[in-house]
Write a structure and sequence with these properties.
The complex is a heterodimer of chains A (394) and B (52).
Chain A (H helix, E strand, L loop, with lengths): L3 E4 L2 E3 L2 E3 L4 E2 L3 E2 L4 E3 L2 E4 L4 E4 L7 H10 L7 E3 L5 H4 L2 H7 L4 E4 L1 H11 L6 E3 L5 E3 L4 E6 L9 E5 L4 E3 L18 H16 L3 H11 L6 E2 L10 H12 L4 E8 L5 H15 L3 E6 L5 H8 L2 E11 L2 E2 L1 H13 L5 E8 L5 H6 L8 E2 L3 E4 L4 H20 L4
Parallel strand pairs in A: 8-9, 9-10, 10-11, 15-16, 17-18, 17-19, 19-21, 21-22, 21-23
Antiparallel strand pairs in A: 1-2, 2-7, 3-6, 4-5, 7-8, 12-13, 13-14, 14-15, 19-20
Helix pairs in contact in A: 5-7, 5-9, 6-7, 8-12, 9-10
Chain B lengths: L3 E3 L5 E2 L35 E3 L1
Antiparallel strand pairs in B: 1-2, 1-3
The chains are: A alpha/beta (394), B mainly beta (52).
């Protein structure tokens, strides 16, 4: 795979994964992904920042060989997750003098996951620096983006921030640098939603700290390099802020049409009131689309029929994910139907403990929705409108 | 001194042990943890903890 130059003596030597369509056997990757690894040649020492997924082992090693690298002094490990660390054992095997530079927490994870021996590590602390001769690396500890051990590196002389997964996006592109920011917006937001959103409060603090650095390029571990750092940093500021939008995200599933009828009616009821609505049929939708919609919505309404006395399992899955991703949603309700009984509302209500939400009275129809149910849906739409007015977002 | 449990992941903060990784010495009551202390297992804020 082609080696790509960021700046003089700084190269991207990782791997593009054009075909990957699922990450963690969970997250859809419509645009593939990349595992970026950066080689920095100083006047005295050479450092490699992160490695690649183990499925791309030959790519990284061949890139280093093609670049004529015969010595690596340091392998900086920002994050022990295997898509960045998977090939570290191979790199330190091929370059026996290389030491793995990381913090104590990441060291333990690398020992656990990749069986790297203790004597191959150099342990660093927050704000420590490492000189490569004419280039200086400064380490910035940034826990929880998105594991507890995460580190970022700032290359002082070249003003490059290597933020690992923070600011990343799952894109496979032959172009190293972002050339059209519009193309990156959605993959970056999707990445934030799926990976970073649960750690919103941590990111707020990290952004504050990063604001004191003079940054010319942001080179993340997935996707393209940002030549205008403020583009992605401003987006992150917006996403992690407490601001919500005049929107209702409406994940739903329907078996025989009752819930579908309620959902259709409810969508219109919201539209009439000037509330934006984003419905997602959970049996068809890409969960990344749902996660993205949750980034800034004020309200979440889950709609499901009753199956085997509880919510439809697909609705359970959607609700479980929404709870785990901890979006900043403020209001929640449930729409549903049942045939003869069940504990659908109690079960769903018991699944949202992570969300700091006010729960509005659910609308549950017995069988196909009737006049009283439609009135109740109008009432719920009106309650949501009033809440959004209270939040001053409409 | 009371123990506190994380409602998200179940981690229990034991004041007699503290949280060495975060620089919290043993003997620190939950109430005296810094406001930006977070759950060492899942990263959530102090307000997601309940007394056990």
């Amino acid at each position: 795979m082609a080696i790509r130059e960021l700046k003089k003596e700084i190269y991207e030597v990782g791997a593009l994964d054009w075909d990957r369509r699922l990450f963690d056997e969970l997250i859809p990757l419509p645009d593939g992904t990349s595992y970026n690894s950066y080689l920095i040649k100083g006047s005295e020492k050479t450092a490699l920042i992160d490695a690649v997924d183990f499925t791309k082992k030959n790519v990284l090693i061949n890139n280093l060989k093609n670049l004529g690298i015969d010595r690596i002094d340091y392998v900086i490990s920002h994050h022990a997750e295997q898509d960045h660390s998977g090939e570290i054992p191979e790199v330190i095997k091929q370059f026996p003098e290389a030491k793995v530079v990381t913090n104590s927490k990441c060291k333990e994870f690398l020992k656990d996951h990749l069986l790297i021996p203790e004597d191959r590590f150099i342990t660093i602390n927050d704000r420590d620096t490492l000189t490569l001769g004419d280039k200086t690396l400064e380490f910035i500890f940034a826990p929880w983006v998105h594991w507890p051990e995460t580190i970022l590196t700032y290359l002082r002389e070249d003003r490059i921030l290597f933020p690992c997964d923070l600011f990343g996006s799952h894109i496979a592109s032959s172009e190293l640098f972002v050339s059209n920011e519009g193309d990156v917006y959605k993959p970056a937001k999707r990445y934030y939603a799926e990976i970073m959103m649960p750690f919103r409060n941590h990111i707020q603090k990290h952004l504050e700290r990063l604001s004191s650095y003079d940054i010319e390029l942001i080179a993340p571990s997935h996707g393209q390099v940002y030549t205008r750092p403020e583009f992605i940093m401003d987006l992150y500021k917006e996403w992690v802020s407490d601001e919500v939008r005049n929107e209702v995200v409406l994940p739903y599933v329907s078996m025989h049409g009752s819930v579908q009828k309620m959902v259709d009616y409810f969508i219109e009821a919201l539209m009439k009131r000037g509330v934006e609505v984003k419905p997602f049929n959970l049996s068809k939708t890409d969960i990344g689309e749902l996660a993205m919609a949750l980034v800034d919505t004020a309200t979440l309404v889950v709609a499901t029929p009753t199956v085997l006395t509880g919510p439809h399992p697909v609705a359970v899955y959607g609700t479980y994910l929404a709870n785990a991703l901890r979006p900043k949603v403020r209001v929640l309700s449930i729409i549903g139907s049942y045939g003869w009984g069940g504990r659908m509302v109690e079960q769903l209500s018991g699944m949202i403990g992570n969300l700091k939400v006010e729960v509005l009275e659910p609308v549950i129809a017995k069988g196909y929705p009737k006049e009283g149910d439609f009135k109740a849906l109008d009432r719920l739409a009106e309650d949501i409108l009033n809440k959004h007015k209270e939040f001053k977002i409409i | 001194m009371a123990k506190y449990k994380c409602m998200v992941c179940g981690y229990v903060y034991n004041p007699e042990v503290g949280d060495e990784d975060a620089g919290i010495p043993a003997g620190t009551p939950f109430e005296e943890l810094p406001p930006d202390w977070t759950c060492p297992l899942c990263g959530v804020d102090k307000d997601q903890f309940e007394k056990v």
